[in-house]
Each structure stands twice: as structure tokens, then as C-alpha cells.
């Protein structure tokens, strides 16, 4: 057999290079891929025990409930949210909007609280949420973002599901109405199950450092939440939902999560550019995650998403790359029901993985502290 054409390449002096002689970088990558594969298998195995999606509940809850909607310059988006809450006690906390948010909310039948300026140390949204909490007298408070689109039967179902928990949040279905959104958005959201696994598993509670909530929809018992500190627990955070979940879990509280995609929809962004900027600001939860955990998350994303496809296309991939890409694509199929509409752009979304991981890595190192026209210090 000609030199250099055996099963392994020839090294110096014609010595055959065996698998054990592979460059240290290649061995390190393979070992890292094995660790990530094992980690993902453990995380995603919980998915077999996921709870069924939340179903609509007719009628009104036995307990009193108020829906609080914090809003800043949401005139163009808050209408569908309020339309889906007709007949309920709704309080819109107008966070010093410069548009017609407050007037529109009043026309749709909501009560409007003109928000005060945030005290030192508070962020705009956390202060708006706290004002709504303090202004309510209901037993239960449901916090909904202004860009959500709730269906009838959502709020009673949420309150029933929240019974065993100190705080409950719900995942919505994503409305991505442009091809650019559908191309980028799924590659962003798939990073969540890769890093944390499924959260809607009955009887399972995450350790504090890995706890999650979805701030688009949060349910609390008012008195108990106020006694625990309310939104003041996370007053200085921009990713207040993640920070709240971790603070409550650290205090021994129970955090719940349900899939409400059949009853709640959200259009978070209106373009691919908005998706890049918006998810880049919040997805890595930099102000609620320590440096070591952040570095671990970034490493998992590169190994699970950022490298397999480019390596395979460059014909440098191994069976480990194939396995990792298989997990990534299986998650993409599983998450398809969380998107409306889908179309070709949705199914092509994995090709953006390397760019998405690079962007999130950058944002983990250089967090974006802007929100709704305001810029906050670290």
C-alpha cells in the first residue's frame, strides 16, 4: 500500500499515526462532545415525563384574580392582549409611555395605573410589575406581557395549575409572521432546552442555579409573593424572570412551568433584526447567571449547535458530530408545534446555528443593557 494511504496517515519518518496519536485538540474536542452528549441525554430524558399542554377552563376561578399588564409604548401591540382578557379584572400599569398606550387600554375596558418614576436600583419593568402587585387586592395575580395574545379560558386554567406552586409561569406559542423571524427565532429558542432541558415536568424541581421562568406569563398568590419580597427580590435585573426563579428556588420555594401554547400566543419581535437584538439581550440571562455557569452554557452551545454542521460540511465531522446534529434536529422537530406559521424558513433555521451561537457568545461577554429606550448600568 502506498505510503500515507493506509487507514491512518503517516507521521514523521513514515510512522503510522494511530487513533491514540490524534492531536490533543482533537482528543479534547471528542472528550467534550462525549460529555455534552451525556449531559444532553440526561436533560432531555425528562421530556418523557412532560405534562400535557394546558387546556382551557370555562367559567371563573373560585378565588379572586387580577391580570396585571405592564406596558411601555405598547399602543401598536396591546390591543389583542386586552381583547383576550374581556370580562376579567385587568390592570394596565402604564410605564410612562410616550404614545397612546393608556388611552387605548381604557377604551378596551382595562383599568390603568399611571406608573411612577422608578426608585433608585429598580428597572422599569420590575417597578411596573411591583406597582401592579401592590395595587391589586386579588388573591391571585397573573402578570402578562403586552405582546401576548391570550385565549378565553387561559386565566382560570393558569390559576388551577398554579395551586401547588409559589410561582407558576407558562410557555406561549410564538407567532413569527416574517420569513426572517422564522429563520432566526427557532435557532434562538432551541438553546433553552439544550441548556436547561424541559421545565414542565410534574414533581421535578430544578436546583436554584438552573431554575427558569417565562416572564411573559407569571402567576403568583399575591399575599405570599409580597411576603417573600415580591418583585423587589429582583429589582435590579433586566432578566427578571430568570432571576426571580433562582431567588425563589434558593429560598426553598416551588417553581412551576406549564405549556400554554394552545391558549397563549406571543409575537415578540417584528423582524429578523429585532429577533437578533431582542434575544441577544435576554436569552443568556447574563445578569442572573454566574461567570462559570455562563461559560459552561456557551461551551455546550458551541459543541451542540455551533460546530457539528460546519464540521460535517467541511468533511471533518465524526460520529459524535452526527449524533449531536441528530439531537439538534430532533429538538427542532419537537419544537415545531410552538411556532405559527412555520413554512420553509422554519425548517431551514438550523443553518443559522453557528451565527446564533457566535452572537449569543458575544452577548454573554458584552451584555446589552438597553430596554424600551432606557439604558441601565451594570
Strand-helix topology:
Layout: H1 24-45, E1 65-71, H2 78-83, E2 90-94, H3 101-107, E3 111-114, H4 124-135, E4 140-144, E5 148-150, H5 154-161, E6 167-171, E7 173-175, H6 179-189, H7 191-196, E8 217-221, H8 222-228, H9 240-250, E9 255-259, E10 264-266, H10 272-282, H11 291-306, H12 308-313, H13 319-334, E11 339-340, H14 343-347, H15 353-365, E12 370-371, E13 374-375
Parallel strand pairs: 1-2, 1-4, 2-3, 6-9, 7-10, 7-11
Antiparallel strand pairs: 4-8, 5-10, 6-8, 12-13
Helix pairs in contact: 1-13, 6-10, 10-15, 11-15
Descriptive account of the structure:
The protein has 378 residues and is α/β, with parallel strands linked by helices. The chain has one domain: Spore Coat Polysaccharide Biosynthesis Protein SpsA, Chain A (Alpha-Beta Complex). The protein is built from 15 helices and 13 strands. The protein has helices at 24-45, 78-83, 101-107, 124-135, 154-161, 179-189, 191-196, 222-228, 240-250, 272-282, 291-306, 308-313, 319-334, 343-347, 353-365, and strands at 65-71, 90-94, 111-114, 140-144, 148-150, 167-171, 173-175, 217-221, 255-259, 264-266, 339-340, 370-371, 374-375. Strands 3-2-1-4-8-6-9 form a seven-stranded mixed sheet, with helices on both faces. Helix 10 packs across helix 15 (353-365) and helix 11 runs antiparallel to helix 15 (353-365). The termini are far apart.
Amino acid at each position: 500500500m502506498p505510503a500515507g494511504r493506509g487507514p491512518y496517515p503517516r507521521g514523521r519518518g513514515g510512522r503510522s499515526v494511530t487513533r491514540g496519536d490524534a492531536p490533543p485538540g482533537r482528543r479534547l474536542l471528542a472528550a467534550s462532545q462525549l460529555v455534552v452528549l451525556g449531559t444532553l441525554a440526561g436533560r432531555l430524558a425528562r421530556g418523557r415525563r412532560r405534562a400535557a399542554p394546558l387546556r382551557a377552563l370555562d367559567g371563573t376561578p373560585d378565588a379572586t384574580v387580577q391580570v396585571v399588564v405592564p406596558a411601555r409604548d405598547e399602543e401598536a401591540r396591546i390591543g389583542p392582549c386586552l381583547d383576550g382578557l374581556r370580562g376579567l379584572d385587568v390592570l394596565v400599569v402604564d410605564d410612562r409611555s410616550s404614545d397612546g398606550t393608556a388611552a387605548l387600554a381604557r377604551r378596551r375596558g382595562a383599568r390603568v395605573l399611571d406608573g411612577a418614576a422608578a426608585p433608585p436600583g429598580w428597572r422599569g419593568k420590575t417597578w411596573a410589575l411591583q406597582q401592579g402587585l401592590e395595587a391589586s387586592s386579588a388573591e391571585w395575580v397573573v402578570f402578562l406581557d403586552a405582546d401576548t395574545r391570550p385565549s378565553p379560558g387561559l386565566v382560570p386554567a393558569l390559576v388551577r395549575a398554579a395551586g401547588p406552586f409559589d410561582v407558576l409561569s407558562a410557555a406561549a406559542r410564538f407567532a413569527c409572521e416574517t420569513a426572517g423571524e422564522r429563520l432566526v427565532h427557532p435557532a434562538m429558542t432551541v438553546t433553552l432546552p439544550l441548556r436547561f432541558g424541559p421545565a414542565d415536568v410534574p414533581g421535578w424541581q430544578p436546583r436554584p442555579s438552573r431554575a427558569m421562568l417565562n416572564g411573559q406569563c407569571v402567576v403568583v398568590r399575591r399575599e405570599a409573593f409580597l411576603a417573600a419580597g415580591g418583585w423587589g427580590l429582583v429589582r435590579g435585573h433586566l432578566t427578571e424572570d430568570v432571576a426571580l426563579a433562582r431567588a425563589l428556588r434558593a429560598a426553598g420555594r416551588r417553581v412551576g412551568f406549564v405549556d400554554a401554547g394552545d391558549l397563549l400566543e406571543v409575537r415578540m419581535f417584528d423582524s429578523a433584526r429585532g429577533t437578533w437584538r431582542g434575544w441577544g439581550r435576554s436569552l443568556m440571562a447574563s445578569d442572573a447567571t454566574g461567570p462559570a455557569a455562563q461559560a459552561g452554557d456557551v461551551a455546550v452551545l458551541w459543541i451542540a449547535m455551533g460546530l457539528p454542521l460546519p464540521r460535517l460540511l467541511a468533511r471533518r465531522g465524526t460520529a459524535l458530530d452526527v449524533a449531536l446534529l441528530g439531537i439538534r434536529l430532533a429538538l427542532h422537530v419537537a419544537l415545531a408545534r410552538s411556532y405559527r406559521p412555520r413554512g420553509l424558513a422554519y425548517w431551514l433555521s438550523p443553518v443559522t446555528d453557528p451565527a446564533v451561537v457566535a452572537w449569543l457568545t458575544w452577548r454573554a461577554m458584552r451584555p446589552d443593557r438597553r430596554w424600551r429606550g432606557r439604558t441601565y448600568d451594570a
